[in-house]
Design a protein that fits this description.
Elements (H helix, E strand, L loop, with lengths): L3 E4 L2 E4 L4 E7 L9 E6 L6 E6 L5 E3 L7 E6 L4 E6 L8 E7 L2 E2 L3 E6 L1
Parallel strand pairs: 2-11
Antiparallel strand pairs: 1-3, 3-8, 4-5, 4-9, 5-6, 7-8, 9-10, 9-11
């Protein structure tokens, strides 16, 4: 069983930045692939970014160049650094690893 806990969401103005954290209840997070998803009201959950076991990363086209996913294995934490935020980035952001999901953290970007 892996527990994932997200934090770092909040309200920010358009053009602002936030850093989300996903901390796992395991001591060897480096062997897990981790993804960030988001779900806006009335929309389907969509994949935002992922980091593989080998630390390679991937991003949705809508966030490329603005979001950066990274991991700190010593802290069992994966981060999502979000820059130049837009109102359309408003959503609940979820951390995922295989069948495990966090509870989500709300990100709201005001125009």
């Amino acid at each position: 069983q892996v527990h994932l806990v997200e934090s770092g969401g909040g309200l920010v103005q358009s053009g602002g930045s936030l850093r989300l954290s996903c901390t796992a209840s395991v001591s060897n997070l480096r062997i897990y692939a981790v993804k960030w998803y988001r779900q806006a009201p009335g929309a389907q959950r969509e994949l935002v970014a992922g980091i593989a076991r080998d630390a390679s990363t991937s991003y949705a086209e809508s966030v490329k160049g603005r979001f950066t996913i990274s991991r700190d294995n010593a802290k069992n934490t994966v981060y999502l650094q979000m820059e130049n935020l837009k109102p359309e980035d408003t959503a609940v952001y979820y951390c995922n690893s295989y069948e495990y999901w966090g509870q989500g953290t709300q990100v709201t970007v005001s125009s």
